Amino acid sequence: MYVVKSPLSDENLKTVSEALQGALVDLIDLSLVAKQIHWNVVGPRFRSVHLQLDEVVTTARGHSDTVAERAAALGVSPDGRAATVAVGSGIGVTPEGWVDDAAAVSALVDALGAVIARMRERIAATEEPDPVTQDIIITITADLEKHHWMFQAANG
Amino acid sequence: MYVVKSPLSDENLKTVSEALQGALVDLIDLSLVAKQIHWNVVGPRFRSVHLQLDEVVTTARGHSDTVAERAAALGVSPDGRAATVAVGSGIGVTPEGWVDDAAAVSALVDALGAVIARMRERIAATEEPDPVTQDIIITITADLEKHHWMFQAANG
Amino acid sequence: MYVVKSPLSDENLKTVSEALQGALVDLIDLSLVAKQIHWNVVGPRFRSVHLQLDEVVTTARGHSDTVAERAAALGVSPDGRAATVAVGSGIGVTPEGWVDDAAAVSALVDALGAVIARMRERIAATEEPDPVTQDIIITITADLEKHHWMFQAANG
Amino acid sequence: MYVVKSPLSDENLKTVSEALQGALVDLIDLSLVAKQIHWNVVGPRFRSVHLQLDEVVTTARGHSDTVAERAAALGVSPDGRAATVAVGSGIGVTPEGWVDDAAAVSALVDALGAVIARMRERIAATEEPDPVTQDIIITITADLEKHHWMFQAANG
Amino acid sequence: MYVVKSPLSDENLKTVSEALQGALVDLIDLSLVAKQIHWNVVGPRFRSVHLQLDEVVTTARGHSDTVAERAAALGVSPDGRAATVAVGSGIGVTPEGWVDDAAAVSALVDALGAVIARMRERIAATEEPDPVTQDIIITITADLEKHHWMFQAANG
Amino acid sequence: MYVVKSPLSDENLKTVSEALQGALVDLIDLSLVAKQIHWNVVGPRFRSVHLQLDEVVTTARGHSDTVAERAAALGVSPDGRAATVAVGSGIGVTPEGWVDDAAAVSALVDALGAVIARMRERIAATEEPDPVTQDIIITITADLEKHHWMFQAANG
Amino acid sequence: MYVVKSPLSDENLKTVSEALQGALVDLIDLSLVAKQIHWNVVGPRFRSVHLQLDEVVTTARGHSDTVAERAAALGVSPDGRAATVAVGSGIGVTPEGWVDDAAAVSALVDALGAVIARMRERIAATEEPDPVTQDIIITITADLEKHHWMFQAANG
Amino acid sequence: MYVVKSPLSDENLKTVSEALQGALVDLIDLSLVAKQIHWNVVGPRFRSVHLQLDEVVTTARGHSDTVAERAAALGVSPDGRAATVAVGSGIGVTPEGWVDDAAAVSALVDALGAVIARMRERIAATEEPDPVTQDIIITITADLEKHHWMFQAANG
Amino acid sequence: MYVVKSPLSDENLKTVSEALQGALVDLIDLSLVAKQIHWNVVGPRFRSVHLQLDEVVTTARGHSDTVAERAAALGVSPDGRAATVAVGSGIGVTPEGWVDDAAAVSALVDALGAVIARMRERIAATEEPDPVTQDIIITITADLEKHHWMFQAANG
Amino acid sequence: MYVVKSPLSDENLKTVSEALQGALVDLIDLSLVAKQIHWNVVGPRFRSVHLQLDEVVTTARGHSDTVAERAAALGVSPDGRAATVAVGSGIGVTPEGWVDDAAAVSALVDALGAVIARMRERIAATEEPDPVTQDIIITITADLEKHHWMFQAANG
Amino acid sequence: MYVVKSPLSDENLKTVSEALQGALVDLIDLSLVAKQIHWNVVGPRFRSVHLQLDEVVTTARGHSDTVAERAAALGVSPDGRAATVAVGSGIGVTPEGWVDDAAAVSALVDALGAVIARMRERIAATEEPDPVTQDIIITITADLEKHHWMFQAANG
Amino acid sequence: MYVVKSPLSDENLKTVSEALQGALVDLIDLSLVAKQIHWNVVGPRFRSVHLQLDEVVTTARGHSDTVAERAAALGVSPDGRAATVAVGSGIGVTPEGWVDDAAAVSALVDALGAVIARMRERIAATEEPDPVTQDIIITITADLEKHHWMFQAANG
Fold first, then answer.
1. Does position G137 have pLDDT exceeding 80, yes or no?
2. G and J adjacent (3 or more CB pairs under 8 angstroms)
3. Neighbours of B76 (CB within 10 A)
4. Searching chain B, which residue's CA lies closest to the CA of residue I51?
């Protein structure tokens, strides 16, 4: 039976692993939502939004790998399967079909806003139990808030 | 209302769009399944399998983008949302938690085998309606069958 | 006297060479038209359209080289001179002078649409006589249809 | 006491050094103004304008280095300090705070126009005294006029 | 109505825009002619000439972009359409069909010679009206004369 | 009216935005001061100091972009205009004219020392209101303290 | 016992595996023959032919890997041993010793011609049994026919 | 006498410098131990372990440079000499001679575990005295814990 | 008749050319054998062995080019044709078909051992006649012995 | 007999070719002198001067190629042989043997000063006969004057 | 029990393995000493010496890997542990604490001199037993003697 | 007075320094001769010979740096000044003016032949006194003999 000796106490580990598992689901869903709109956006700003969305995908994919491997490093099995993402994501429903460019930008403002709010809670929750994990989530939040600004500015 | 004038007849378009939507769901799920096992594999072959799985992820992500944009090019909105993937994928259930390296390899043999079988049906289905789409699916199938061999050989 | 022994029968060679010569003229003109609008576009979407057009130029230049060298490989002299292009292109007249961004996008939708229609005929015409040439034209068509979508979406 | 033996007569050196010092101040300010608007622009064209402005920054930074080192090469100490730039720049006042995208483009049209006018005077002034310096300023002017066109076209 | 405020007087602008439009047509045609012979050359020196011609194409394409955008920067719409090139180029007729390597080299010597003669006139014509444009044409001429030497030396 | 919904309370936002605006002004001025001395340094250590200063410029430019965009991400307009920098910088006066190499190194020791002291205050001030911003300032401080050491060691 | 479950029927697999094994032997021999002449060519065109041959080697090595791994992907063991190549290649005997440049070019025209003829048979043979394999052989044939043209043109 | 004015109080500096000096010794020894096993490992997993160890070496070398230069930046002389490392490292004895692959993996699990435990103490110790140093050690610990997981997983 | 004036006496040339021709045949066969096993290996260590073999192929191909061109430089025609390799190689028979990973590693240990023994004889044989050739063979031997160790260690 | 039809009159050609031949000899000698001191410099500033000199070598080699090929482009045979350089260079005698760093810097100040003075005469001489050549020499002079400043500053 | 069949006799192997083990210890210590001074050097030449020392580190690390793997290739376990290095190095004691730049250069002159003297003995000792090993040590010595010169010249 | 303590005895040093100084002069002259013909070659093979000559220049420049720095490393001042090269080179007189391609190739065959003959003497002369220097000259000779073959083959 595979057991990693965690550097954290059981209680701290529970808190941290919930933060990481939650972050993983949010980030995978963010990558899927951004790709979905990347493919379905239409309108005069098509090209700008199409490209801007791929930068969100790159950020979300990179960070989802980091948080999943961070969980593994603490001895906790990460779960990034489609069904887990479908039910656990903090991002609201993305409607199917074509989406005009203004709505596409708004959808990202909402999606990023939802994920950021949950990440800020995770920053607070992990500070005491594991500053190493907290530092990773701080870095992710900085990147997400930068993307958030860029979509807000594009709708400004 | 956004309408793309498709180069295909309605009937052909229906066949082709089903093939592309099915391929999209399979490839996104393949990327998620391969990442899931990439994070959860344990055992003496950990590093080889961990790296080999990321090559599958790269293949699956690249081709999912190609088929989604191919659908858009034909005027059909692609659907790659988590819930759509969770219910529509041709890949069986991936169990949660750690997975030893031999089981990890077997899981990929099965996942790739399932996707390949469906891709071969799509090659046949699209030949007449749209040889351009068929050519894309042929290329994808060649890559998947190469990965399939490598996991089979690793279990040989 | 320079003669290349073609792997095709005379009849097949005639069909294939017409397809290749036609594709060459269309692709060179597409590269010139896209550059013309790249230089003359004005309006709020100037930068997006300006950059998007250069991607069409890159595609068209690369594929024109491929089809010309494919003709040569079959023993048929390709003709890509300005006068040949001016009279033989399948793309309609491009008006002179500045063009606003919406009209620029529409012009590309039309130009790409015209070339794609002829390419699809060439796919059908070359299937039996030379599947190698057909495969090249299928690849070109896939790229053109992707560009076509992107300009349609930008006007959507 | 550090003295560089200049290849120019005193009179010519005075003319040329004024041209270079003036160009230095204009180019540093251009880089600061472009960054200021790069950060403060909002509106549907946010991303295009944001990126386009960074290209101006790159141009202005590179050429400011060239003219400062050209002054040094002629034995004249260049002055690129903030206070010197604040009082000596040929660019008008940039208002503080957020700026919508159309106003951002107009601000660059004005800023580039102001700098270009002064650069053209420097081309005339340096022709006789130092064709080497003139050639540098000609190159800078060509780049600025290209940026100027792109912002004008974006407001066209 | 889109109008760029040109830094030149009307008279000077007329002279400069004719030079740039002429240069544009010559350079586009040079790129087409060099590609035409690149595809049609035969003989023992095939590979050398084939490669050398592509370097001319790269030069001609790069400089045609520069002169077209220079015209735009001065507020003059450039015209690089196939029909315009077919009737306005300074390069003589390129015969159709295969061309042996010595004739290919001679054709380039002639084509480059014709374009260079016209470029030298443009250097003289633009000196007073716009030294910025002149500097661009001087750079182009230097490159063309280097290519001219290499083809002359190859026939030496 | 463009308003970004900040993730911070008004009070925290005020504290954090002052820290960011102060850091922005300091970093821009540091980049200008380092360039000023980069151009004006003389003496046997010219080349070493000249190159070392450009590394400070690169650091300062990169971080000034980060803090300005961090302010924007929190909904606060950053101000990096020359006049703002000229009056608000924490770096003392840089004398005009040539500067010998030892004095150049000392000037950087002083400039970096002044900025570091203010950055350490900002680390303390932002810890509670926004750990994301604090983390950014910590990273900047680490880089500045490394440069500080290198100039101190060069005067040791 | 290692067995790969092939996606093809036994009959189809037999046809396809013969095509792939034959292609493998031809391509390895082509790489050896091209290297042999690369080392032994003499005459005024030495450098051109020497370099051109290495491009054939690169093509042949790359494609030999592709067809061998395609066979493996279908569950068929590829055989690329020297003795197998020596007896099974479709290329005629290459004489030992120095070879003058015209003869070197002719030898490649012959070798490429022989391989192309067999590849075209394989395109026909694999169309029904396995379009994935056929697509691979079509791509190889396109490359070989391009090389064939270049050597024919060099002897033209 | 060379003295760097530290931004820290004497007491804080003492705490931080002990943490940095300890980290330096641990990281240098980790790089030496990982290289030692990189050269001496034998067994079926030789290649995987051999490569994985070089990634540890790269991490350890990079971070040892960072902590040594951080100490210098605070005015404290770092000591990374062989004898200092030999007596001060937190890693237990590495036996001489060949080591089979499972033992090699276990040795790294132990070595990384020992260093991580000490790093976590340093995170706690430096939090108050110098958050800049703490942030550096947090980053190092994250990397070491990721390597730790990978070796544990490989023995799982 | 092509004759290169060799810098060696006839007797020395004979010795050296035999060494080089023998090395050429061994190295080409090594590249073919390594590829053969690269394609046919199966078992848990598939991926490691598959990749390790391609590094042998790269080494063998690079050095075979060096020794063939060294022979040519001395005026001796190298012979690297398939039939020559098939009969002259110092490597024993490679069985056809799939090979499990341990046997694959053993096969390389044997093949490299056989080639190394012959290379060491060539080092001795060429020392007096041509130290330039000897130096080349020493370098090759160092590389082969490093590969030899790595496969031995993998079977250790 | 090889004759290039020059675009210049005979008189102009004579003036221009003297300028180019003179520049060629000066630049080759500059590259040899800079290398000579690069190898022979000693003293505390060894590394800085050693590296700075190699940048002069790179500049001088690049520009010598440009002027030689410019002469060829005008139909004039360039002469860059050692004996021609030894007698025709404008640079004074470089003493043999080791040279301390201050003397090395002074030697470059003198060498660059001598070449620059002659280049400025060539700028004046070529202005009327050939502005294309003049532009090349202006660019070279700008580079040399930048190097000149850097060595003067290093001795300041 | 892991045994590599060495290509050398027992007696020769003993000589060669002592040379390699000695070289390994010297090179690891050289890398540690150079890093130690890289961090501790102070004085006007700080930056030059700091950078020059990192080049020694790169050389020493690269060659230590080569000699360790050479020992392994001959079947001899290399020992590069800290304690082994601390007692076996041929380099004298490096004093702790800051070191001024002249002393830093002298320390490297001494350290390199000591290692070179031992390397030259190893060249002599390995000539007969193993010319492959000798060739490796000759290459290392050439690099060390080049570094030695550069530090001597910097103190000249 | 700058003195490097040479690792060689005075007698050996004299022999080795003569070899290195002679090699330096030959290699610099080879670079100048190859450039001279690179600029002056005419004829159908112009492009091939022109490019091939630049590869000789690159080889000769790189190796001249190596031998000069090797001399410095042994404490011997290298002399690479134009006058020294003009009188000391082992290459015969290169005639001025244009040279047809066959003569150009022959000139290189002769020049390389002359340098190689002297290099082989230096290999013999340095073997005992300094195997490190000998190894450098062996490497140079291998490169020169490869170039020699290529020019002989081109005249074959």
1. yes
2. no
3. 20
4. B48
